[in-house]
Amino acid sequence: MTSQQLPEHDLTGRTCLVIGGAQGIGAAIAIALARAGGSLVIAGRHHDRLAATASAIEASGGKVTRAVVDVADVDSIGALAAGLGEQGLSPSILVNCAGLGGMGSAFEVTPEQWDGIHDVHLRGTFFACQAFGRRMADDGYGKIINLSSTWATTVGVGRSVYCAAKAGVSHLTAALATEWAPHGIRVNALAPTATLTPTIEQRLKEHPEREAYLRDRIPLGRLALPEDIAGGAVFLASPASDFVTGHTLDIDGGWRFSK
Ligand SMILES: NC(=O)C1=CN([C@@H]2O[C@H](COP(=O)(O)OP(=O)(O)OC[C@H]3O[C@@H](n4cnc5c(N)ncnc54)[C@H](O)[C@@H]3O)[C@@H](O)[C@H]2O)C=CC1
Ligand SMILES: O=C(O)C(=O)C[C@H](O)C(=O)CO
Predict the structure, then answer these.
(1) What value, to the nearest 5°, has the Cα angle with vertex 232 and ends 226 and 236?
(2) What is the pTM of this model?
């Protein structure tokens, strides 16, 4: 595929792995990275659910491979890294975009619910960074983009476990950036505000009053779209951001400064 981006955003020749690429923000990021010229690997728990993203990439002339991984299972992450290696695929760009929601009173949270959220968002992110960071270190170059959230630095009632996980993702990002800078690996994060993905749309159907609550905290006056987040990923994946590391980029319509 010919890059449709400015030269400083050109990802031609780069293999980009997007974990959680079946839908929502991960799908939009995968499509945008392909438009920037990257060769894509999209990974998720179910091979068939990756079909729509793969078709969208192929329809515009992009190259894409589908792979299965469950980031809550460290062995599964290792198997993904080994399997891609056997296919000669060595991602120099990794986007950790798997996720699941979870809302409820902190009085009611069970250890299983805590583990379910932290295993995917924090533990899964760490071990994916480790598995692919090792390969990037061998190459002396890599870019990792983790998905944090506006809830990493602000708080919401009913989101305590998620807030803690995402604050962890942002701080983990800074720690890995510092440790791995000598290996040429840049580690950054995106912190979106509420973004209209299938998961959030379902939640808003169940709690219709929540849409106004979220929108009223966003000075730009609307919830984000997955495509709003994808532009930040292209920046952090591309040579344009080569001197940026350890940063969490808010894509929040101004949320962090509102009341
Ligand atoms: N949508 C939003 O408002 C915001 C989302 N985020 C974060 O962005 C990321 C993506 O969010 P959305 O697109 O809304 O989510 P989504 O629920 O639409 O998509 C998440 C993807 O991750 C996959 N996934 C879940 N558990 C997995 C596992 N164990 N292993 C591999 N894949 C797994 C799902 O199958 C799905 O394809 C998440 O980390 C989320 O926390 C951050 C801020 C705002
Ligand atoms: O109800 C919420 O809270 C949201 O929908 C906010 C998003 O889920 C979010 O910011 C996730 O990081």
Answers:
(1) 140
(2) 0.97
